[in-house]
Amino acid sequence: MPNDVDIVFEGFDTTDDLDDSIGISEQLLPDEQNDELVRHVLTKGVDLQEYSQQIEHELQAMEDEQLSSYEQNEGALLELDSEIRSCDEVLGHMEKLLANFKTSLGAINTDIQALQSDSLSMSQRLKNRVVAEKQLDKIIQGVVVEPEAVRTICDGEVNEKYLECLIEVNKKIAYMRVHNKQHHELKAFQEVMPELDRLRLKASARVRQFLLDKINDLRSLNTNAHVLQSSVFLKYRFFNHFLIERHPEAAVEVRDTYIHIMRHYYLDHFETYQRGLTKLERTIADRADVVGMEESSKLSLFGTAKPMARDRANVFNLGSRASVLDTEDPRAIVLSVASEASDKRPFEELFRSYNLALADNASAEYEFIMQFFVSPKARQKITGSDMARMVFGHIFEPSIRIGEVFLKTYLESTHDALGVLLCIRIMTQLTGELQRRQVPALDSYVNSTNMLLWPRFQAVLDSHIESVKRLSSGRKSKIDTQPPATVRRYAELAASLLRLNSGYNTHVVALSLARLRAEVQAYLTRRADASADQHAALVFLINSDDLLLTVLAENGFTEREEEVSSWKQVLAATVLEFAESELERHFGYLKLFVVDAEQQSDIGQISSDGLSHVASTFNAEWRAQISAINSSIIQSFSNFRTGTEILHAVLGQLIIYYTRFHSLFDKRFARRAGVTAVCQPVGVQNVMVEIKKYRNNF
Question: CA-CA to 647 of 20 to 30 Å: which in 80, 165, 202, 486?
Answer without folding.
Answer: 486
